[in-house]
Design brief:
By secondary structure, this protein is α+β, with helices and mostly antiparallel strands. The protein contains 4 helices and 4 strands. The mean pLDDT is about 90.
């Protein structure tokens, strides 16, 4: 498994390894379009991922736990998965707790 974040043209997605899970996670360009609020180029998607990488990785871990995804099984994140993680991060940063 590659430890690098990549853009895959064949699935129009950013893909990244999920550490400790032995699989990759994909985030489709459509999810980035929703998050960014505009059409997103591959470079825009990669830049957004790198800016919020912690939230993306947290969202992957949360989805694995919530859905009981088996080790080695690839997964994808939706804009809702990522948005939830971004909001939780903002609440923690501002001292709010749910």
């Amino acid at each position: 498994m590659n430890d690098k974040v990549n853009w895959r043209d064949d699935i129009a997605s950013v893909v990244f390894p999920v550490h400790g899970h032995g699989a990759i996670c994909a985030v489709h360009r459509g999810a980035f379009r929703t998050l960014i609020g505009a059409e997103a180029s591959p470079e825009d998607c990669l830049g957004y991922f790198l800016r919020y990488e912690t939230a993306f990785r947290s969202a992957a871990g949360a989805k694995i736990a919530r859905k009981g995804i088996l080790v080695g099984t690839n997964l994808h994140l939706t804009s809702r998965d990522i948005g939830r993680s971004l909001l939780e991060g903002e609440q923690i940063a501002s001292g709010e707790q749910s």
